[in-house]
């Protein structure tokens, strides 16, 4: 193979490597990188871009040498590194890298929403993983007993997702606000001790607002101790999601939870009931405030929010939520 042809191969490799490095730099600079990876991974991706720049510079150096007529250096590994002479094979190989790079530049950057939630399946029980861990460890219900009647909050609904017109939202019970009363209200085992601690902090709040940095942890706490929080006020922000099994008055306030990158994203949400739910467009972002109820959906006991107020919201700067490494510390 001629030096000029080898130089062309090195030049193509330079352009592809440089393209990926520039694309990463663009995503980082525009902060669109957060649509694809968790914030804790950003620094690693930045370093990878520097490596790509370095390798691209080396490939450019080799290309210049080949165009000047130098022969390819022997690396001494007894293996022929000469590219294939087949135009079809080279087109396929370079296309495997060039096509996704081109799509990255040409297609709009957008956060994940309802279409992906449909494929992955919306999870309406945030505590399912904790419950499964307890079940696998053989922890029976006796290890996490229900609160005693005197410790339980006043009833605020029928438990079917339909508000009880004769009941008013539960107010924090001063008698259950400290010490042994809270311990009795929120029993715990080794799987739930951190959530029980958070539940005690949330219990006396007049309005439970789900913070971005504790989004999944708070939803899991409310799900684990749902009976104790029935009747309490809750506010959260997310995108509107619907599926066929829902009534016209129902929708989900959803978010995607990410561990590392968009490949492991999982949709979680809270079922909401609102008289004007049909006016809310799918994937629009809303902040909803309402009263926590308990209902059944697809034969599963879940939390439902009886919505009293809906406000349009701007998508969060980081539209996904992430595990909080400091939770429970």
From TrEMBL:
Residues 12-123, 188-323 form the DUF1980 domain. Keywords: Membrane, Transmembrane, Transmembrane helix. The keyword Transmembrane applies. The chain crosses the membrane at residues 12-38, 44-64. The keyword Flavoprotein does not apply. InterPro entries: DUF1980, DUF1980_C, DUF1980_N, UPF0703_membrane_permease. Residues 153-179 have a biased composition (Low complexity). Residues 138-179 are annotated as: Disordered. Pfam families: DUF1980, DUF1980_C. It comes from the Bacteria. NCBIfam families: TIGR03943 family putative permease subunit. This is TIGR03943 family protein.
């Amino acid at each position: 193979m001629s030096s000029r042809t080898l130089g062309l191969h090195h030049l193509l490799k330079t352009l592809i490597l440089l393209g990926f490095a520039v694309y990463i730099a663009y995503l980082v600079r525009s902060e669109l990188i957060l649509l694809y990876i968790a914030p804790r991974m950003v620094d690693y991706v930045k370093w990878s871009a520097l490596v790509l720049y370095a390798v691209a510079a080396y490939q450019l150096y080799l290309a210049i040498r080949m165009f000047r007529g130098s022969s390819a250096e022997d690396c001494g590994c007894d293996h022929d590194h000469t590219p294939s002479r087949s135009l079809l094979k080279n087109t396929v190989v370079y296309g495997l890298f060039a096509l996704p790079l081109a799509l990255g530049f040409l297609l709009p950057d957008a956060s994940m929403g309802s279409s992906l939630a449909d494929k992955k399946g919306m999870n309406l029980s945030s505590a399912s993983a904790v419950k499964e861990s307890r079940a696998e460890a053989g922890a029976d219900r006796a290890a996490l007993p229900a609160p005693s009647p005197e410790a339980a909050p006043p009833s605020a609904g029928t438990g079917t997702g339909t508000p009880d017109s004769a009941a008013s939202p539960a107010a924090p019970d001063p008698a259950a606000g400290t010490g042994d009363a809270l311990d009795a209200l929120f029993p715990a085992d080794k799987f739930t001790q951190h959530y029980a601690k958070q539940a005690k902090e949330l219990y006396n709040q007049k309005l439970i607002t789900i913070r971005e940095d504790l989004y999944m942890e708070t939803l899991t706490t409310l799900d684990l101790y749902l009976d104790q929080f029935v009747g309490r006020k809750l506010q959260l922000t997310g995108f509107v999601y619907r599926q066929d099994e829902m009534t016209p008055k129902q929708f989900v306030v959803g978010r995607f939870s990410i561990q590392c990158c968009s490949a492991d994203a999982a949709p979680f949400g809270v079922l909401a009931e609102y008289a004007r739910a049909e006016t809310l467009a799918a994937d629009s972002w809303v902040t909803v405030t309402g009263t926590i109820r308990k209902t059944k959906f697809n034969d599963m006991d879940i939390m439902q929010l009886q919505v009293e107020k809906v406000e349009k919201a701007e998508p969060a700067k980081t539209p996904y939520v992430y595990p909080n490494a400091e939770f429970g510390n």
